Amino acid sequence: MVARPVLHPSSVVCTMIKFVRSSYMPQCGLFQLVSRSFFTSQPASTLQSAYEAASDSDRNDDEYANVNWDELGFRFMPTDYMYSMKCSLGDEFSQGKLNRYGNIELSPSAGVLNYGQGLFEGLKAHRSKGCDLLLFRPEENARRMQIGAERLCMPSPSVDQFVHAVKQTVLANKRWVPPPGKGSLYVRPLLLGSGTVLGLAPAPEYVFLVYAAPVGNYFKEGLSPINLLVEEESHRATPGGTGGVKTIANYAPVLKAQIQAKKKGFTDVLFLDSVNNKYLEEVSSCNIFLLKDGVISTPLTHGTILEGITRASIIEIARDLGYQVEERLVSVEDVIDADEVFCTGTAVVVAPVNSITYKGQRYHYNVGAAAVSTMLYNSLTSIQMGLVEDKKGWTVHIE
Q1: Which of the residues are catalytic?
Q2: Which residues are recorded with the post-translational modification N6-(pyridoxal phosphate)lysine (predicted)?
Q3: pTM of this prediction?
Q4: How far apart (Å, rounded) are the C-alpha atoms in residues 270 and 104?
Q5: Mean pLDDT value across the chain
Q6: Among residues 47, 61, 248, 325, which one has the fewest Cβ atoms lying within 10 Å of its Cβ?
Q7: How much of the chain is in helix, strand and coil states, percent to nearest 5?
Q8: Using an 8 Å Cβ cutoff, are 268 and 228 in contact?
């Protein structure tokens, strides 16, 4: 009999927590997780209430997790808790809960392992100078997961369930949210076909998981401009495929080209369309923009390009600042002739491009403090970090 896929036993026991006081910024209400009886399947607001009720004798002077915040890169660091929720095919997700972070158990015949039936999302939580915890447009991540789930024949959490799970995960890992200006807590929701299948078919059971890790800059260059190589032989996506949804199967195919480019000293790879091999699509994990004569252009999403949430936000911010923004077919010749090029994404935020190499020729672009990408980066991150008034209602406060 094939074992049913379940969470690791150590992750399904009642989680116990103990809260501590901050010696540096007591108004932040940070906590450390040890052992006071309390069910973490209750709402995030209940966790906060429990913190507020903790007695002085239960507190110490620890504020944050033991992390060197000045050396954060974009790499995994295990935190305290993850969120999980299960569902059978044809049903709807219901109550989820927080569990201690740890491994999960999957049958070797799980749909996600055999047929790639899985999706992921990525979003960040920032700590404002006033110590508020802020999410950026999480409902858009939820809607994008729903679109991907429909494409892969999977049930998906509702928008409210998704946002609630993200909030709980962030609050339970609050001590891992970097200090203001030092980075962010990267939140990774996963939707997996966990049920067992042998023949090609949708899995009978699904798991929705959310975990988190503190991160700094995505590229090793930090905030310095990056250098891209145009990939001419392999392609990221094809028309009618899944390039427009955030399925896990989209990313492994780019690794070979990415590794080869990095061996040559490039930061990442810029992929072209698979039909004409001349129109820009995406960098390995982010969208691309160019600026020419004051007009900003970005490739039109038409099923092969992921509709990035940062991409959509930058388009709106740029238009608010008076720029004409075009979503269209963008050719290699267009990018060669551009004044400025930059990438956008949750992980990379807004990354200026120093150069693009195509057919052995390297083309350089404007970068620096006066660049449009710098202005857009500052405008976006000021909203994300709570440094300016959010007139668009994009940020969500975790309470």
Answers
A1: 246
A2: 246
A3: 0.84
A4: 35
A5: 87
A6: 61
A7: 25, 30, 45
A8: yes
